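Sanity check

After download, print the first record. It should look like this:
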Amino acid sequence: MHIDETVLARVRAELGRPILLAWEGEVTERERDLVARDPARRHDVTLFVLNGDRLALIRKPHFETGIWRTPGGGVKPGEEFAAGVVREALEEIGAAVTLERYLVHARAVFRFRTEALPWETHVLAATTDADELVPRDTHEIAAARWGTVDELAGPIRGRLLATGRALWRYRVALHDAAIQALADG
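Expected structure tokens:
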């Protein structure tokens, strides 16, 4: 994996030590296919982009009604980590961001039958001065909007868990850990 300990040591030096999160869960075949669609990629970055009390949220075209999440994506091989994270923000919410903190480093194992798929997520806090969120990658992102941490921790959290899907339970665990890290300062 191209995001190795050398890369993460630099991220920690610049943005601080994250909360460590271990997660494991059984996934459906459809979820396994989402995780395994690019065999070379076993990570994602997730962004808590804040503008005052507002939190950037995105919706992908395949999301069910009421499903929103924080933006993120993958850092490409050969791409500097911070540059990849900033690029993902620009693609998904159309806003330039400043990275502030490394909130969560999650190590997950998604299980399907006898298969175990390892995955890592790096959750970072960022700020922006943008008032409007306009995704540039309209193929991947159906909409972006401002919400709040309370909305993410309340009604959105409930909606994600109500789907019964493991990948949404994982996303809730990431959100919960990041919200805790933000609260702890």
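If your output differs, re-run the checksum step. Summary of this record's structure: The two ends are 30 Å apart (CA to CA).
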